[in-house]
Amino acid sequence: MSKSVARVRRALAGAGLDIEPIETGNATTAQMAADLVGCDVAQIAKSIMFRDESSGDAILFVTSGANQVDLAAAGTVAGVPLGRADAALIRAQTGFAIGGVSPVGHLTPPRAFFDPHLLRFDEVWAAAGTPRHLFGIAPGRLMEISGAQRADFTA
Fold first, then answer.
1. Strand 149-150 versus strand 82-84 pairing type
2. 2, 21, 93, 151: which sits with the fewest CB atoms below 10 Å from its CB?
3. 44: closest CA among 109, 141, 126?
4. From CA 7, how far away is CA 36, in angstroms rounded?
5. For residue range 82-98, what is the model confidence (pLDDT) as tens digits?
6. In angstroms, rounded to a whole number, what is the distance separating the alpha carbons of residues 73 and 12?
7. How far is CA 111 from CA 40, 60, 106, in A?
8. Would the pTM count as exceeding 0.90?
9. What would the pLDDT profile of 20-31 be if each residue is shown by its tens digit?
10. CB-side exposure of 24: number of CA atoms within 13 Å?
């Protein structure tokens, strides 16, 4: 098992959850992930990272696979100017590579915001540390354990 998946497993267990990430096959898009687990693309909880242009820190936006993050709205929600977070920043702060960023288990937990559209579902699916691993969870619990704040930031 990869170190990234193990870190996600520990984060889930540390939150009192008995959730086991599953290996699904490589998913490079939300639609591919949805097809692999048999859910609607809107039930994929994408972890999108931006760079706080003031501090240089990464900020996490957990959004529905059916939505796109609106950069201006996200900046307003975060209260800081946002820019592109490169792979090096994401890896350094979260410990995850792009494509496998989980909403939990980060090396340094980022400020995080949560798309309320995900709360419509009983279960959502999120990356578990690699592009090949996902875990299913109630969206309210995911928002809670990720430390995310509910906010509207999608286009």
1. unpaired
2. 2
3. 126
4. 22
5. 999 999 999 999 999 99
6. 30
7. 27, 6, 11
8. yes
9. 999 998 999 999
10. 31
